[in-house]
Amino acid sequence: MLEIKNLHAEVDGNKILRGIDLVVRPGEIHAIMGPNGSGKSTLSYVLAGKDDYEITEGTITYNGVDWSEMSAHERAAAGMFLAFQYPIEIPGVATMTFLKTALNAQRKARGEDEISTPDFMKLVREKSKALNVTPEMLRRPLNVGFSGGEKKRAEILQMSLLEPTLCVLDETDSGLDIDALRVVSEGVNQLRSPDRSMIVITHYQRLLDHIVPDVVHVLSKGKIVKTGGKELALELEKNGYAEYVDEEAA
After folding, report:
1. Interval 18-46: pLDDT, tens
2. Which domain range does residue 112 map to?
3. What is the CATH number of the domain that holds 130?
């Protein structure tokens, strides 16, 4: 279980998160919505342990373990996965080499043997087919020359291989057309499990038509200002965020 208490964080001395309280139980999907600049991506980076994102107050615990002082790779080994809004291209790093290295690093952290090359190739073929990740994509350097949809599908493939227990999707719908959104969402939904929690960060209801959340939160000026069910996302789609921004400013 993820438990965030009174989380305050800043970047380069700028206060971004101003007291977030959040509990995500195993098997739950929580959507976090809010206007630009509300702190959504900052929250994802703080959870992942990104450098330069400093926790100034409050705690993050996952399965009873305090994450506040843990590094990004330690959090990843503990089950954390962050899907980026804009996955980066890494020329010179083969996609298959990257995937195998990442998977074996996680297996080593869990005390498991490294996966053999034949078993790895079989696993990738099985999982990539469902996500429409082609063999040609897998032969390229990581994300190089990929469209927005291809980058997101490759990232969900990575998530599927690593099998994290806490997935944070930072605006996964950015840059996706309708067909790519459907494919990526189906890949995410295949990973839904009683033992896996997800936080889905988005501006728009359209993603939540495909990845239906259990709980929706509105984030404004670094605080969660309203929490509700999936119908809250429909309300936001209809009325926008002005009401909550004004509430926080009052």
Report:
1. 999 999 999 999 999 998 889 999 999 99
2. 2-249
3. 3.40.50.300
